Amino acid sequence: MYKFLLNLLVIICIATFAQAQDFPFGKFTVEELQQKNYKNDTSAHAYVLNEFGSTRIDMGNNDRINMFFKYHVKIKILDSKAFDKGTITIPFRSYDEIIEDVMDIKATTTYTDDAGGIRTAELDASKIYTTSLNKYWKEIKFAMPNLRNGCIIEYSYTKIIPGFYSFPSWDFQSDIPKIYSEYQVHIPAFWTYTAMMRGGLKLTKNTSEVERECFSARGAKCDCSFMSYGMGDIPAMIEEDYMTAPKNFLSAVYFNLQEWVNPMTGAKQRVTKEWADIDYNLKHDDYFGSQIKKNLMKPYLLPVVAGAKDDLSKAIAVYQYIQKTIKWNGIVSTGSDNVRKALDTHSGHVGDINLALVAALNSAGIKTDAVLLSTRDNGTVNRLYPVEREFNYVIAKATIGTEEYLLDASDPLLPFGTLPMRCLNDQGRVICFDKPSYWMDLNNKQRKITTSALDLTLQTNGKLKGTITTYSSGYDGYLKRQAIKKFNSTDEYVENLDERLTHVKILKSEFGNLHSLDQPLSEKYDVEIDLYNGLNHDRMAFNPIILDRMVDNPFKLQDRAYPVDRGMPSSSRYIITMHLPAGYGIESAPQQANIALPNKGGRFMTDFSGEGSNFSYSNVMQFDKAIYAPEEYPYLKELYNKIIASEKAEIVFKKKS
Amino acid sequence: MRRICTLLILLLPAITAKAQDNYAVNLIPKELLPYTSSVIRNQSVVTEIKDAGSMVYRIKKAITILNKNGDDDARIVLFYDKSRAIKSIKGATYDEFGKLVNKFSERNFNDEGTTDGFSLYQDSRVKHYLPSIASYPYTIEYEVEMRYKQTLVLPDWRPMPDASIAVEKSSYTFACKPDFKISYKEINMPAKMTTGKNQEGLTTYNWQVSNLKAYRSEPYSPIAENYLSKVKIAPKTFTYSGIPGTYSNWNDLGRWEYDNLLKGRQDLPQFAKDQVKELTANISDPKQKAKKIYEYMQSKTRYISVQIGIGGFQPYPASEVDKLNYGDCKGLVNYTQALLEAANIPAWYCVVEAGSNKTSMLNDFATMDQGNHIILCLPFKNDTTFLECTSQKIPFGFLSNFTDDRTVLACTPEGGKLMRTPKYTTAQNLQTRNAQFSIADNGDLSGDMVTIYKGTQYDNPEQLVGEPFNEQVKWLRKEYNNISNLEIEKFNLKQDKQEMPVATETIKLNAADFASADNGKLYFSLNPVNRMRSLKDVRNRINPVYINRGYTDEDEITYTLPKGYRPDSDPWVVNLSQPFGKYRASVTITGDKLIYKRRIEIIDGTYDKEVYSKLVEFYQKIADNDAYTVSLVKN
Fold first, then answer.
1. Residues 173-232 of B with CB under 8 A from A
2. Rounded CA separation B553/B198 (Å)
3. Transglutaminase-like domain location, by residue (chain A) (predicted)?
4. What is the DSSP letter of A374?
5. Which of B1, B216, B518, B569 best probes binding to A when mutated, by most A CB atoms within 10 angstroms?
6. Chain A hits for B37, Cβ within 8 Å
7. Of chain B's two ends, which shows fewer C-beta atoms within 10 Å, N or C?
8. What is the pLDDT of residues A1-60, one digit of tens each?
9. Is B325 an interface residue toward A (CB < 8 Å)?
10. Percent of chain A having pLDDT more than 70?
11. How confident is the model at residue A536 (pLDDT cuts 50, 70, 90)?
12. B103 touches chain A (CB under 8 A)
């Protein structure tokens, strides 16, 4: 297994940035091996020395069209924190027609041994493990042998993908920096793909050539376009908080099949070129249009809509019926093989549920379209070329009078017209069967709104007694109902709250609109709060923020490269009214604050008013945007700083002499 | 990085009931409903041994899911591989009124490869099923039969599988040929065993429970193993992977393990042995030799787990680990043992239940399933030393909170021995901090802070080691999140890797607007660096209070106040003392210096359940005190 190589024999190969071919396997320089850090990013624990990939469309041994994807990488491991890079996982599909295969795995580790000699260890083929993950996916895993600090690992493999639809994409960027990464594609003229770049980095190589007669299938021959995409000095992708899918920002190239000519018959097939094609396909698709066109009135909806006075109440009744009837199985999708089956078995994925909703609303006479979208985790959809497979989710858009409502029935706690956070991602495509599809914003006008009002009286024993009332509206109402649902009963929820707020003893509780999902949820608690140990002080400092005082700024980075995406605007208001015992008065009050974000992004305001032995303090926190640009980040961070500072300030009251 | 290895997953599904059972939800006794999200209506588990080499396991279970929180309790999970096979599965679901909704069978199950998240490969697979029913409550009833090709590990019985599950009726029957002898141990069992004979002439041991209320998870509870009901069964004679064995105590079991799974797996190639000799040539003290070898092992290996067949209990040969430079806990311990042997240093392979909770082997009841990890013991005279072999960084002889203070099984040529790993005490787990801070009249903070971490607290800053400065700063901003706008000018972390290791963190820092100005006053947090969080109260607590590990924190911050300002309050001192802990904090003022001192001691042990409210009060008072805001006024 060991190959002892004399230092002298090591062929020194200088990496050039414009190779036409894959770089040679097993070559390295002593300099690479001795490198202690990466000069372009000293924080890296590992970096890619060179990475090469290529995809070629060709006839396979099975006499079918296959894509041959070759991958080859050489990584420098600087220290043990990057040893996870030495465990390689290659997932591949294995289901029905799509039986992929991975072959020609080759892997070596080159390291300096204890005596200072350079050694190369090869991966033992018996240590390559294939696991069948589920009925769709398998994976190959192996661990590189003999990892040491400073070693170089190198591996390559070829993946055979049947067909020509899912042409492999290429990520230039990953979680470690790369010196150079190149992807070459050989596409016979029978096929036409559009290539799409994503991310903010620029290609350093982008060439296109013609390869003569590179493809032949049963006598049919054609030329190939041979394209090379190269990128040098690629920084690592670093994830930040409040960021949507990293994929949105990762530099990568994607390919989409536009049209192809059958090499045997010469028949030309347009796959997707215009939205009109997609619209047409969806309309006639068994998994989409056919499901939406089903009339669900008779077997399901007659009792549901009976008694509904107007269209809105009819729509709400249908929405709630679907919410309660089909339980979401946690799978996201854009289509359904049978919405009736989902209604009958009470179980389905997102496509089942929301296409059933679209069909049901239309059956009930409410004009409703399906809207395709990509969830936050799945990344945003490009809007330059129509690519249907970038969508992974479908919702409904109902039109009632002049109002439009975006609906997702996958969660029984969602109010009519509110989308879950996962859907709030840029724009969705409205698929209408009577006119062309179009883009629409998904932000849906929804907000998070919380108001807390405290009315407290300071007793002579030092305890505060009174009420805390909280109204949670919009998305906050949904979140609060979710939190309550985590308990077996509201009593258990209150008990837990009481136990968590150790200062506060809850004497009585009352909930309003717990089940009326479109109304603000109210919680009212009669409380006793332990604040002072008896009134033995003549002069007392009081911080008016009794609940949820902000002490920690969520934004800690100096600068930010990506937008802060909070999904939707939010506002919260806090009001406390205090009644002091007779003989007490206010000595000093906090300064009033009024700070605003630029571009009408939001504000923080406080207010104080006091008279005699009563005073009230209030503050309002408003974030009026769903997304803040990186340029707005410093202001956002500073606003939080100001809120934290302001919430430290105290009111001093004292006994009048 | 330390990982446990799965020695053997014997995760067994829980069972079905007779078809004529009525699962109407209104038949559940009312007293079983509080804190309950699902109710086991009827469960019967049977383990049957007809020959020494295999067993049949049957479970019949009916469980009613009352609300969404109980959904997971309806899930059926069945692991299988070459040594355990699923023989049959059938089941059905019922609505609130006990009316049949649906039937299901094996073809409704998902079949997947297992991934425990840290293994490169495991040969076991899993079949699982979760019924989808949109309305609550509902009942799932199922019946599963499994066959095991071993009799070394016999299934435990836990009538209460988890929190928030109540039990109406549940029973366990262990049936075996009269000549198959067992011993059993009842832990917190509300019912006693009855014995008899079944129709096939097998000896039966039966346990039955009914109407058990659901329990809540309570903070500071003893380790679940110590308070939940459980029956454990051990065979006298058994077969495992074709190897027969007999045992009646830890000594026998340890000897069997040594003779059959460990012996002869420590051969090393000659050059590896020579390397060890060369490495230790100039060292005479055996312990120093061992340290050198251990550090050598750390520098050339990493943790990779591959679990195939008997591999669950047997290490890869040392020669294999030497070649690949990786292994799981068994492989790395066995390899280290082999390296030490090349230097004539004896060492023992020890089975331990790893994790922050201190779980010991049962003193009086030996079974093979009581550990999930392997460490190495060096039995030096009067200086027994234990080694964790799966981490590249942990100091020689230090176990951290992963395997400290618990009983482990050492497998030696003379048989099994129960041994205890060292305890790190309240006094030893010490964090000492000293800060010199200045506050400017615009509220800016600047200063230096030195923190020394000892004992199990040594690990607190461990993840900062080897990280680039910007990553360290990110971490420090989270750790010291009460200092807004924290800027780190200098950071240094020094690790002294002794058996009782010491880490020293030195920070030079500043923070704009640390003190906020309001109406001519300056406000700042007195203790922005080490704050206690309040503890959730639990009314009607059932469990005693258990503090798993003690520690001591000492902080001293000297603030130099801005010119022209003085504190708006007098010096103070707070003193709290309880059996489980002590706290003292004080503020003194001399000239322009405000000195804050804080000392907290949390003492490990088990206390009456009534103590819990005192613990809550103690934490709350500390949390309040730690959040003290100093206000400065102009002179």
1. none
2. 61
3. 304-380
4. -
5. B518
6. 488
7. C
8. 333 333 333 333 333 333 358 899 999 999 999 999 999 998 899 999 999 999 999 887
9. yes
10. 95
11. low
12. no
DSSP B148-173: ESB-SSPPPB-SS-STTEEEEEEEEE
Distance of CA A34 to the CA centre of its chain: 39
Q: Which residue of A has its CA nearest to B536?
A: A500
Give the span between the Cα atoms of B74 and B63, in whole angstroms: 7
Task: Tell me the longest C-alpha to C-alpha distance in chain B.
Answer: 95
**Please, which pLDDT band fits residue B2 given cuts at 50, 70 and 90?**
very low
- Domains of chain A, start order: 2-7+30-268 (2.60.40.3140), 276-441 (3.10.620.30), 448-655 (2.60.120.1130)
Q: In terms of CA atoms, which chain B residue is nearest residue A144?
A: B324
Q: Does B292 touch chain A (CB under 8 A)?
A: no
Answer whether B481 touches A (CB < 8 Å): yes
Q: Token digits for A316?
A: 């709400």
Counting other chains too, the contacts that B104-108 makes at CB distance below 8 Å and 24 or more residues apart are B104/B129, B104/B131, B104/B142
Nearest to B120 among A45, A87, A551 (CB): A87
* Chain B residues with beta carbon closer than 8 angstroms to that of A641: 484-485, 513
User: Does position A544 have pLDDT exceeding 50, yes or no?
Assistant: yes
What pLDDT does residue A272 have? 67
Whether the CB-CB separation of B535 and B431 falls below 8 Å is answered with: no
> Which H or E run includes A539?
strand A539-542
Q: Does B489 touch chain A (CB under 8 A)?
A: no
Residues of chain B positioned with their CB less than 8 A from the CB of A324: 134-135
AA identity, residue A102: V
Q: Is B534 on the interface with A (CB under 8 A)?
A: yes
> Residue B275's closest chain A neighbor by CA?
A114
- pLDDT of amino acid B117: 62
Which residues in chain A have their CB less than 8 angstroms from residue B36's CB? 488
Q: What is the mean pLDDT of chain B?
A: 91
Least confident residue range of A183-192, A447-456, B300-309: B300-309
pLDDT for B130-139, tens place per residue?
887 778 899 9
Pick from B309, B315, B317, B180: nearest CA to B242:
B309
Q: Quote the pLDDT of residue B310.
A: 58
d(CA B318, CA A48): 32
Give the CA diameter of chain A. Answer: 108
Distance from CA of B8 to the nearest CA of A (A): 19
- Asked whether A447 and A424 are in contact (CB, 8 A), the reply is no
Can you tell me which residue has the tokens 């099994």?
A: B416
Interface test with B, best of A488, A537, A646 (most B CBs within 10 A): A488
Residue A650 has its nearest CB partner, among B304, B538, B631, at: B631
Mean pLDDT of all residues in B504-522: 91
Find the helix packing angle between B329-342 and B270-279, rounded to 10°.
70
The pLDDT value given to residue A541: 82
A80, B302: Cβ pair inside 8 Å? yes
Taken in order of first residue, the domains within chain B and their CATH numbers are 25-243 (2.60.40.3140), 247-420 (3.10.620.30), 430-634 (2.60.120.1130)
Cis ω for the linkage preceding A436 (within 30 of 0) = no
Give the confidence band of B635 by pLDDT, cuts at 50, 70, 90.
Answer: confident
Nearest-by-CA chain A residue for B134 = A327
Neighbours of A39 (CB within 10 A): 8
- Residues whose CB is less than 8 angstroms from the CB of residue B198 and which lie 6 or more positions away in sequence, other chains included: B175, B204
| Interface contacts (A, B; CB < 8 Å) | 155
| pLDDT single digits (tens) B381-418 | 999 999 999 999 999 999 999 999 999 999 999 999 99
- Dihedral over Cα of A121, A127, A133, A136: its sign: positive
